[in-house]
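Contributing new records

If you add data, match the layout below exactly. Sequence lines come first and carry their own label; structure lines follow with theirs. Keep one chain per record. Anything else will be rejected by the validation script.
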Amino acid sequence: MIIDETIQNDTGETFIEVDHYQLCKHNQHSPGDVFLSEKNPADGHTITTLSDGLGSGIKADVLATLTATMATKFIAANIPAKRAAEIIMNTLPVCKDRGISYATFTTVDIEPDATVHILEYDNPPYLLVRQNTAIDLVKDDTEFERKDKNTAPKVKAVLHYSTYAARPGDRLIFFSDGVTQSGMGTPAFPFGWSIENAYAYILNRINEKEDISARELAHSVVQEACIHDSFVPKDDISCGVVYFRNPRDTLILTGPPLNPKNDEILSGIFKRFYGKKVIAGGTTANIMARELGVKVTVDMDNLDPEIPPYSEMTEADLVCEGIITLGAVADILESGETPKGKDNAATRLVDIFRNSDRIYFIVGTKINEAHQDPNMPEGLEIRRNIVKKISTLLQNKYLKEVHIQYM
């Protein structure tokens, strides 16, 4: 089988996990910090940018979005990093009262050979962690005057550039000043949490949990900063993490094979797979239970009015209903927000996807008569279209590697 040949559990391979977490300033519905990431299909570069717009709300969001988009696109277009930064900084307006740029940024460009290039302008300095230790890199500082004719005196900008060869296990952590300035004015942190304290916290979290994912570490940093603000963020709080590590694999079976003779082949692939294993679909679950000689038990303790309950089965990390659950997963991935307080099959599957690097779908092509029922919910797509939508979202929005095989 193609997918059986594709799956490689090569511990020498390094995967680049990129993720972030952010909170808006209290009473603001639009984030003033923007995080963008993409993998350039032309040359294999992974590019990510965190931009912090001056102030908060919609105006800050627009300026941060403009800055992050320009930085990401310029680097993807192979414009030299310093030249790209100069164009960006001369494009953005300057606050006349404070004499500073309306947006800051940190851009990380990772080549296929794991060479990392970092540009920083006015964001807190990044932290590189290697073998649970902070690594100091030499930075090339470039100072130049902005060409804003309406600004007097001329505004001098300092751009920091650094590069290094990443190693397996490296983590690169960068954040907005909503992290370092959290808690400002409180007895514990009268001048804010500070860069030093943020670094110490990050190192402690990594020491506590050496395999902590990029997503979990970013979430932890932002939540800790929020605690310092008494759970009422005084500014937008954002953290991005790049983690170089062995890939985490997930296999998801959904739909019965067209030919029943392939049931045994499918169960063999499922049993040999090293990583997370998911079954989406009642018929598929019954086939696997029969072929593997195990039982499927429905969990009735966590019922959700919108999503069918998940089940438990030996050999599987998650067993759930197919079409409705996968449709909900696509919606969550598209919105980028997991419903708060929800613990159902869809949220669990999203969590598995987001904590995975390589995701392998085996999609059965036998038609399920129930999906042809005109009484089914409007807009319900057939299985393969939902899988294609999920695959596109995982690749383009979450930088996952996805493989699909039809059976």
